[in-house]
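DM from R.C. (forwarded with permission)

"hey, sorry to bug you on a friday — could you get me a structure for this? deadline for the figure draft is monday and I only need the backbone to look sensible"
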Amino acid sequence: MKYSTSVLDIIGQTPLVKISNGCSHGGPLILGKLEFFNPGGSIKDRMASHILQKAVKEGKLQKGDTVIDNSSGNTGVAMAMVASVLGLKAIVTVPDKTSKEKIDLIRSYGAEVIITPSDVDHEDPRGCYMTAINMAQKHGYFHMNQYHNQDNVMAHYMTTGPEIWRDTDGKITHFVAGIGTGGTFSGTVRFLKEKNPALMAIAVDPVGSIFAEYIKTRKVGHAGAYKVEGIGSDTVTEALHPQLVDEVITVKDSDAFDTARDLARQEGISVGGSAGGAVWAARKAAEKLDDNAVMIVIVADSGTRYLSKCFNDIWMKEQGFLKETREVL
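My reply, with the result:
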């Protein structure tokens, strides 16, 4: 018989699937790395599994201990899933813009969810980031610390990067990924640039986030509001290694959501808004490339986590992203 002894053993080894490049000319080959094939449904499974299993091996965590972190949803799901396997308790603090689907999924693994306001500053004690830190300090919980933990970066250096290099036979020329903590981007690009220093690494940031300006100028600007989940930040994170970024492309909420909807309806690939933004950026970059380029774009999660949001016509219209709702048959 062939089987895995734990759901954690089947994290990774996600497939590459061709995505239309949107070019009027031939254009490059764009391949989406479909991270929703992970058991927890997103790329964050890699990070949570690596960080928590390492902490257990090092004696920093024992069965019955509590782990905590802030999340826009996917890290929370991954952390809750891994915690359930390792016999840990999990608490996830999320901003109130997090989709109901993700909140319900986190709770399904037995974790506690604390919903916090999203319209507060990063250092505001009411926000999800400071709530997690303060609770960890007060109660002695293990803070996974995805924003600044270098094990976040190492998870992708050890898995995501090598998989992409292997599955493209080393032919990848461009890598595209949204940046939230920056861990996925930094770890993957670090590995790929060690293999091919000429690789072009393109980061994708939503309008309203501080990352794009920081990457270009090393100055921290003022964050604005945006609706897309999973990418962008109102603070500089240590998991993002800006020196690895060759280009940063900013994407509007509307373009991210429209692209996610189009991918589902035109190519049968259901993705979340962050992946919609990454694919939109990849297509913009593809307009300047020839047929020899091979571009990999990270598809962080599935559209099933946003059925009440960007795939809901009423929500899209309420947010000003859809002029008219389709007639319900």
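R.C.: lifesaver. The chain has two domains: 7-38+159-318, 44-143.
me: no worries. The radius of gyration is 19 Å.
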